[in-house]
Design a protein that fits this description.
The chain is an alpha/beta fold. It has a single domain, classed as Ribonuclease Z/Hydroxyacylglutathione hydrolase-like (Metallo-beta-lactamase, Chain A, 4-Layer Sandwich). The protein is built from 9 helices and 12 strands. It has a 7-stranded mixed beta sheet with strand order 4-1-2-3-5-6-7. A 5-stranded mixed beta sheet has the order 8-9-10-11-12, with helices on one face. It is globular.
Amino acid sequence: MRMHFLSGGRLRMRASVFAADAAPDTQLELPVLCALLRHPQGNVLFDTGCHPLVIGGAETRWGGMAKFMTPIGRAEENVLDELGSIGFSADDVDVVICSHLHPDHCGCNGLFGRATIICHRRELEAAQASGSERAGYLRVEWDHSRPYTLIDGEHDLFSDGRIVLLPMTGHTPGLVCALVTLDRDGCFFLASDAVSLRANLDLDHAPRNTWDVDLQLRSFGEIRRIEAWGAEIICGHDAAQWSGLRKGSHWYE
């Protein structure tokens, strides 16, 4: 099995969202991490990132959220163009795993018309709830014509231990991470926003955009145990880590 890290876009956000001691006017530029997992039984995409239309048109698509989470960068920094750069198209993807349904993680879901789209049941319920826009769920990004395949707990995608989905509640009610085991490069834990930045895990500090702080801190403890077992923790938005990863055609296997 091979794993390709792909860009799902870039964002600008206030540093104070992630660090309690950050100056109010300090901002961070954050990558949006996606991953293509080329399993013998199918091509699996972990998260679909930002929709291409948010570059230059974020307020039209995201409304007021674009003021607090601003897409930046080039229009071609999206998962579809990234897939194309390594010889794949949306129709080559068999399964999409939604870590959660915030717009920077599920923005291209509707463009994968052939794929089975997997989401935790509690996450979809949170997105469908009245007033969910205030919690960061934008219907234009998560609500499309094709149904979700729902999971309720730990889920071994192909029943071989290579891609195991693990709920890590806290940032949202149904956030799902993926424990990926490769033959040569070992284990990787795709954390998404269960660990947005490495500093949050190291300092045991839940970001301000956390749904339930107590559950987030409990998930941090579980993630540290997974790391102690030998997995490399891959954060959802850590620029320093992103710069050191192999990306695109430079895969892990």
